[in-house]
């Protein structure tokens, strides 16, 4: 076996000496500046013409660019993929990542099954890419079996895979399974905690979300903006003004730069607790506002039965133009933690 591998390596080395040097090919530089599928097709045609399409670097680039967020052309990526005799694990992973981005989780699972059938082994990137696009139905159908695969291939202690598992189980409503993975994790980062808190928010166990946040801070894990949004959502539902104020103080003391989603969550928390003066203070200090900002402040005043101070004529006039009855906001219906992490 060793001698055969050595011979194969020798043959490959001899073969590749006849291939053009990558750094001497202008087409390679074009990948870095590729901005559209039309440009990528032209570059792809050039690689075929130059006879370098068999190079792993070229294959990786074309698959990655065609399945990237800017293009989202998985049909083209799949056609290229099907022409590659021996795709690298990077290529398999990139295809799964693309299907997740396109919200086609079943195609991602099919790609994973095909990978195994062709005797390719997953690496520690495979499962996070695969799980990221799961819907609740796919998570329920495939989640536990794929968890067994995680353990079989030895990735049970990898933090990125653990985070993906916690999120996947949370998404499917199997929060006890998510908590099992969470509790058995040797290493936890803020993403792990966020995924678990989000899971409890999903099943409306806001008290457990609050407890986890306090535990997280107590052991010195630094919360992120995602954490604050999640725990403020829980405080809003629990009408827990004390914890909400502690979170707001933590944000100020750590000089955390507020963002639109976080500020909206603060407005919602104070409004839910009946503290409309504090809710309005956050609202008025915002640099930017969106429809959720206005919805939350208007609904807060409407639900509390309070009215704006007469001195705030400009805001009163703006609010009077808004149809309160058509508005509603629920921060527990925020996107999953992974999506939030991208937005914040």
Automatic annotation (TrEMBL):
Keywords: Repeat
PPR repeat residue numbers: 88-122, 189-223, 224-258, 259-293
Keyword Phosphoprotein applies: no
Gene Ontology biological process terms from the UniProt entry: RNA modification
GO molecular function, one term: RNA binding
Top-level division of the source organism's lineage: Eukaryota
Name under which the protein is recorded: Pentatricopeptide repeat
